[in-house]
Amino acid sequence: MTPAEREVLLAGPLADLDDPAEVVWSSRVYEGRVWDVRRERFRFGGHELERDFVDHTGAVAVLARDDEDRVLVINQYRHPIRSRDWELPAGLLDFEGEDPLEAAKRELAEEADLVASEWRELIVIATSPGGSDEIIRIYEARGVSAAPDAFARTEEEAELVLRWVPLAEVVEAALAGRIRNSILLVGALAAHARG
């Protein structure tokens, strides 16, 4: 890091600093059903380092809000945490270069049978930057109405439960530790802070 870059970090406005290290070598070491694991060797701080990380396609989530300031949450079984957690409708980008807003619209329709007339990007998060390159864009959707078609759901999505909850109640549940899905927490707190 140069002295100028250090000065920006210490004195400038609080912001992440893009710092693309030179990748010397990169290989997919595990090909998974949904995402892969990649191993890379890169130059950083005068050394060569090697790291493994989840090579993720990227994802979107939707905080759908109605005229009564309620948020749509879905309850879904998540095997890695052995829990049915409350979440926002969300999903992966289906292909490289897919427009995230179009993916968000698709996910709202597929998981909640809803469409919305107003969309805005609420917040962008790196879910676990020490172990994954996953970036999630959370959109706020308003002007929500029923989609023209209902989707058939399978696997874990076959038992989705949808619930409209006042935003204030979601925030209270988050702060009380009763819900723990990071995307829901970040989305609800960002919506609450922005009003």
Protein traits:
195 residues; alpha+beta; four-stranded mixed sheet; 2 domains; single chain; three-stranded antiparallel sheet; globular
Structural topology:
Blueprint: H1 3-11, E1 22-30, E2 36-44, E3 47-55, E4 59-64, E5 70-78, E6 83-87, E7 90-92, H2 100-112, E8 114-126, E9 135-146, E10 161-166, H3 167-175, H4 182-194
Helix pairs in contact: 3-4
Structure description:
The chain is an alpha+beta fold and 195 residues long. It has two domains: 16-55, no CATH class; 59-194, Nucleoside Triphosphate Pyrophosphohydrolase (Alpha-Beta Complex), CATH 3.90.79. The protein is built from four helices and ten strands. Helix 3 packs across helix 4 (182-194). The longest helix has 13 residues, at 100-112. The chain is globular and about 55 Å long.
CATH architecture of the largest domain: Alpha-Beta Complex
Number of domains: 2
CATH superfamily of the largest domain: Nucleoside Triphosphate Pyrophosphohydrolase
Strand content: 35-45%
Task: Work out the radius of gyration.
Answer: 19 Å
Brief write-up:
Helices cover 23% and strands 42% of the residues. By secondary structure, it is α+β, with helices and mostly antiparallel strands.
